[in-house]
Amino acid sequence: MKHKKRAYMDYAAATPLDPRVVQKMMPYFGMRFGNPSSLHEEGRLARKAIDSARKDIADVLSVLPGEIIFTGSGTESAALAVDGIARLFPHGHIVTTSVEHAAVFENVRALQKEKHPVSIVEAELNGIVDPKKIAEALRKDTVLVSVIYVQNEIGAIQPLADIARMVRKERNRRKEAEEKTPLYVHTDACQAPEYMPLSVPRLGVDLCTLNASKVYGPKGVGLLYKRRGIVLEALWQGGGQEQNLRSGTEHVAGIVGFASALRLAEKKKQKEYARMTRLQHYFLKEIKHLIPQAVLQGPPIGTFRVPNNINIVIPGISAETLVLYVDERGVAVSAGSACASNKKTAKQEGVRFSMGRHTTRADIDYTMQALCDSIEILQ
């Protein structure tokens, strides 16, 4: 059975390229093909485009252009932050959480296997991390705390500013005690730009990961915000691009597209947040009415959950099986728990519905029909 109509409900996995972003990118796929490292006019035009994009992104984040490092993905950005610190401090302690995206979690786990000291703080039952537990995990040799901003499966918004305050308190203690070990906060903010504030000074983080493909920009480009003065070790060597931290010819079209996408997201944020909140409430109301046995995973709808996310468990039905059945009926969703490492937070794999700019009530109605039909067959 194949349905011509499709309802895409997996925007947390990937977003379509905004046509306005494509328009900005197109010249760099054509005549403006120069290498940004070249001294001639073609190279200078490419360099100017990157510099302009860097400034635009820095303005959105309320940081300096020189604090933006372009990478090939969000995963690479997270790896540069985590491994870039770990390589400089091979005995430095790292604190992270049980609900991190694999981009952070798997890199930390790899370090742990190499006998690097690591503490993994368990999230609460609702998927939110208690800042006090982060504070309790800090040691005199802790060099990095990495906490996701918006959890990718259950949409939980982590109290980053509170966590950053706890870290600053420890940092100040070290300063007063004349201890030399640095302490930094990194966040994976890839799921945040559409709905959450991105002002880095307000978040209080030292390192921040973003990804263009989650914000209606191109795949294959990400960035790492690195506070001025922080030293990282590069993941590889080469031509020394991006302040010697990401060697390789820059993806000019992708970088231009990233800046355009981030600006558009910032411009639309308040209006889209309100629209998405209405859709989220409608969607959950329909689920409760038509599928009363469904269990919402993560925090309740409201302050601590992004408005485009709903993750449910249907008792007795495999999430992956349900994903395949609704796909056959024309709906794209995904399966997954907050993190396999945290058995308390996610007792069963759930089905994630993540809405986006093109989602309408009609899409939700269509999704509900596909969901109900699939459940009826599977029960």
UniProtKB/TrEMBL annotation:
Cofactor requirements of the protein: pyridoxal 5'-phosphate
Recorded GO MF terms: cysteine desulfurase activity; iron-sulfur cluster binding; metal ion binding
InterPro entries registered for this protein in UniProt: Aminotrans_V_dom, Cysteine_dSase, PyrdxlP-dep_Trfase, PyrdxlP-dep_Trfase_major, PyrdxlP-dep_Trfase_small
Catalytic activities: (sulfur carrier)-H + L-cysteine = (sulfur carrier)-SH + L-alanine
Stretch forming the signal peptide: none
Protein keywords: Iron, Iron-sulfur, Metal-binding, Pyridoxal phosphate, Transferase
Residues passing through the membrane, by range: none
Family annotation (SUPFAM superfamilies): PLP-dependent transferases
Ranges for domain Aminotransferase class V: 8-366
Family membership noted in the UniProt record: Belongs to the class-V pyridoxal-phosphate-dependent aminotransferase family. NifS/IscS subfamily.
PANTHER family hit by this protein: CYSTEINE DESULFURASE, CYSTEINE DESULFURYLASE FAMILY MEMBER
Name of this chain's protein: Aminotransferase class V domain-containing protein
Organism: Candidatus Ryanbacteria bacterium RIFCSPHIGHO2_01_FULL_45_22
